[in-house]
Amino acid sequence: MTRGILAVLVGLLCLAFGPAASVPPARAEAGTTPALVAIPPGHDADLRFFPADRAPLEGVAAFAAMPQADVTLWLAGNQFFAMNRVVGDFQARHPGLSVGLVTLPPGLILKAIQAGGWTYQGHSLAMRPDIYGTVSTDQLRATGQVHDYITYMHNALELMVARGNPKHITGLADLLRPDVRVTLPNPLTEGIMSFYGKPVLKRLGMWSALSPGEDCADCDPSPRVHFAMVHHREIPARIALGQTDVGLVWRTETIAAIARGAAVEGVALPPEDNAALLVNYVAAMLDGSGHKEAAAAMIGFMASQAGQDAYAAFGFVPASPEERTLRPLPPG
Fold first, then answer.
1. CATH number, domain at 81?
2. Which long-range contacts link 217-222 to residues 24+ away (Cβ below 8 Å)?
3. Structural domain that includes position 306
4. Does residue 125 sit in the same domain as residue 13?
5. Tens digit of pLDDT for each residue in 73-128?
6. Cα(114)–Cα(128) distance, integer angstroms
């Protein structure tokens, strides 16, 4: 009996982590197969599984359960703090549906979609999501698996500083001060920087001073500047540890950090610098979704007033009814 139970357990682990959960990987250049994308260590809270009838799982346990989800979402990471409410409200309207969730930089997610999955803490998850949420229609297009999408919310850039603003930071110009240590989202995989922050800083003539060499991630492009790997986790932590004086974040991330007890505050940026009129959170069902009915229900919820209210509770700016209407992805 014991041997039989052990065999069942081994079989379940193989189902969750091994070839049985695999999908054909995306084609790479020269006919090679891209490697599954490694999730950086310490991101248990960005991997969640919401069963239909019990408490959510995180980390490796969620990673293992992900293939059994009725609908799987891989979303731009700075939504992580809103997702218990968002998923909970969705499940209240759709009882019986389980939800798998990954909240990481959208460029990293795009790489995982193209490669066919992730690795984390020695485990592999070979699958793609039902829904991809990002901050760029270009990234939706790059999947090669999207035809229709919605815009479901907006946000604004601001600076995060220690409580009391001891360095008296007032705007982006202060990032060039020699006495100010700066942490920025990385421009390789984080949409907040590649699509919004970097263009603003280039327009102001600041980018070359902050990043004089090649763009990189989890690195120091200059003595005072650090590029984070996952900024929404690292910037509040680096401020708390006294490693940085200021970071570029979404307004909602400051609200979330304060709600978690972080000793930080926000410095608002003027409209010409906060990109609020440009920041669009977009989502789409991938053509290869194996759960089209549940995925359509989730997209519908994100576009509904209930979904808008769930996100607005965390500082996100609602999208207009027209933006929330499913429409064809424009050509590149």
1. 3.40.190.10
2. 217/186, 217/187, 217/188, 217/189, 217/190, 218/40, 218/186, 219/186
3. 2-154+279-328
4. yes
5. 999 988 999 999 999 999 999 999 999 999 999 999 999 999 999 999 999 999 99
6. 9
